[in-house]
């Protein structure tokens, strides 16, 4: 073989080797891909649900995505949101892993076992997944969901169910009457988890994606605010404060503390629902219509169509702002109970409170306007008069031609109603409607 032909042959071999090497490099690079890290922190609820939906969508839109890791740190939350998030995780077409750091309590158990791989940080724990309220129907449905997901992912369904149902006893693991709660070491020993990982790099190794690039997603400030405002504790409290403030405002003259408290509470309640993605601006329009009807009713007491319509629209707006009808019912029941208690306290103590007196009197009642002092007017007890302005429960009555500041016994009295002075409470004149 001459030198010219030999050089040509060597160049051909070198070209072939270069192509093979380049192909290997490209294949290796493609094999690395990206792994997205999605944090599941705080209360499990509508806000977390919307965050997970958006984050998973972002990850799957990336053609280089090879896997998703969910870092879990939660004391639990709502069952409906946990079930929805679990469904999203199960349906992900790429590899998924959960990394408990440092806790997966209650609803967090379902999120953890929904992934293909379960890993836990040293010192972390998982369990205590009992429902609240602990009714037979709710517990049965919840444990059924836990068992189903555990079986689908190859986990011990009885072990997972024991975290929610204290009636389940497992020899050498948990006794009857106790909820199962496992440390990272115990979960690994019982094969509930696949690995005790000290960081994301070890989780990637478990997923066989050690060479992948990681993309960390962060929970936005708006989502964190929405988590707080839509939580199972704060949302009913805001609704209750809104209704109590509305009651106080209707019962007092002018826009004051009650109206301000109601406006702030309702704004936070509906604002949180909008941020969490439960509803849109339509709910605000419905609520404003409810307030308008209640104001009309306040200007013409004697509970009628306007008042009833206002209450109905408030209920409708709350249902619209809730993720489920069940959640709306719970929030409304809590709010109405607290409002009733507040109303009873107002009726009982307001006439004796100097602070309430400052809230109810929006104008100065001077002698130039025809008013007279009510200091110890014992001479008026037993006398009859007529209401000259709505008593809600404070207002004015006319007795023997004199306009006097007075209060009713906690009920609305329209202008023109015949009343009788029944007693003095300090400097307050208390009247009742005459039959």
Layout: helices, strands, pairs:
Layout lengths: L2 H30 L1 E8 L4 H16 L3 E10 L4 H12 L4 E11 L1 H7 L3 E4 L4 E3 L8 H17 L4 H5 L19 E3 H6 L5 E2 L3 H7 L6 E4 L4 H9 L4 H18 L5 H19 L6 H18 L5 H17 L3 H25 L4 H7 L23 E4 L6 E6 L2 E6 L10 E8 L2 E6 L2
Parallel strand pairs: 1-2, 1-8, 2-3, 3-4, 3-5, 4-7
Antiparallel strand pairs: 5-6, 9-10, 9-12, 10-11, 12-13
Helix pairs in contact: 2-3, 2-9, 3-4, 9-11, 10-11, 10-14, 12-13, 13-14
CATH level-1 class of the largest domain: Alpha Beta
C-alpha-based Rg, rounded: 33 Å
Query: Can you say what the CATH homologous superfamily of the largest domain is?
Result: 2-enoyl-CoA Hydratase, Chain A, domain 1
Query: What is the N-to-C order of secondary-structure elements (H for helix, E for strand)?
Result: HEHEHEHEEHHEHEHEHHHHHHHEEEEE
* Total beta-strand segments: 13
Tell me the domain tally.
4
Strand content: 15-25%
Q: What proportion of the residues is helical, as a percent range? A: 40-55%
From the spread of the alpha carbons, the general shape counts as: elongated
* Total number of helices: 15
Biggest β-sheet strands, sense, barrel: 8 strands, mixed
Span from first to last CA?
131 Å
CATH architecture of the largest domain: Alpha-Beta Complex
Weakly predicted, low-confidence segments = 19-31, 358-367
Class from secondary-structure proportions = alpha/beta
The CATH topology name of the largest domain reads: 2-enoyl-CoA Hydratase, Chain A, domain 1
Integer average pLDDT: 82
């Amino acid at each position: 073989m001459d030198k010219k032909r030999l050089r040509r042959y060597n160049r051909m071999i070198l070209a072939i080797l270069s192509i093979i090497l380049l192909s290997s490099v490209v294949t290796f690079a493609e094999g690395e891909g990206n792994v997205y890290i999605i944090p599941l922190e705080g209360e499990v609820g509508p806000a977390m649900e919307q965050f997970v939906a958006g984050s998973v969508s972002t990850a799957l839109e990336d053609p280089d995505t090879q896997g998703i890791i969910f870092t879990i740190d939660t004391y639990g939350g709502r069952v409906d949101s946990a079930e929805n998030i679990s469904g999203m995780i199960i349906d992900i077409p790429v590899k998924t892993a959960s990394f408990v750091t440092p806790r997966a309590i209650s609803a967090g158990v379902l999120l953890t076992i929904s992934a293909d791989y379960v890993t836990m940080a040293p010192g972390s724990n998982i369990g205590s997944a009992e429902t609240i309220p602990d009714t037979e129907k709710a517990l049965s449905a919840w444990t059924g969901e836990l068992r189903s997901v555990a079986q689908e992912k190859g986990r011990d369904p009885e072990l997972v169910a024991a975290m929610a149902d204290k009636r389940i006893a497992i020899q050498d693991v948990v006794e009857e009457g106790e909820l199962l709660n496992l440390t990272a070491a115990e979960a690994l020993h019982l094969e509930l988890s696949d690995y005790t990982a000290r960081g994301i790099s070890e989780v990637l190794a478990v997923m066989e994606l050690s060479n992948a690039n990681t993309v960390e997603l962060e929970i936005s400030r708006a989502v964190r605010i929405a988590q707080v405002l839509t939580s199972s504790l704060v949302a009913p409290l805001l609704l209750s404060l809104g209704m109590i403030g509305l009651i106080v405002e209707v019962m007092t003259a002018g826009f004051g503390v009650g109206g301000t408290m109601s406006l702030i509470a309702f704004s936070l309640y509906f604002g949180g629902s909008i941020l969490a993605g439960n509803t849109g601006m339509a709910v605000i329009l419905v609520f404003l219509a409810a307030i308008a009807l209640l104001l009309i009713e306040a200007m013409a007491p004697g509970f009628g169509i306007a008042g009833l319509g206002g209450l109905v629209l408030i209920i409708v707006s709350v249902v619209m702002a809730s993720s489920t009808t069940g959640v709306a019912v719970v929030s409304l029941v809590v709010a109405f109970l607290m409002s009733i208690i507040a109303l009873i306290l107002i009726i009982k103590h307001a006439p004796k409170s100097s602070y309430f007196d400052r809230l109810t009197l929006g104008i100065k009642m001077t002698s130039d306007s025809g008013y007279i002092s009510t200091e110890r007017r014992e001479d008026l007890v037993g006398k009859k008069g007529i209401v000259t302005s709505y008593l809600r429960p404070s207002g004015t009555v006319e007795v023997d031609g004199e306009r006097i500041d007075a209060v009713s016994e906690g009920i609305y009295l329209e202008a023109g109603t015949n009343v009788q002075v029944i007693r003095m409470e300090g400097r307050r004149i208390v009247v009742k409607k005459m039959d």
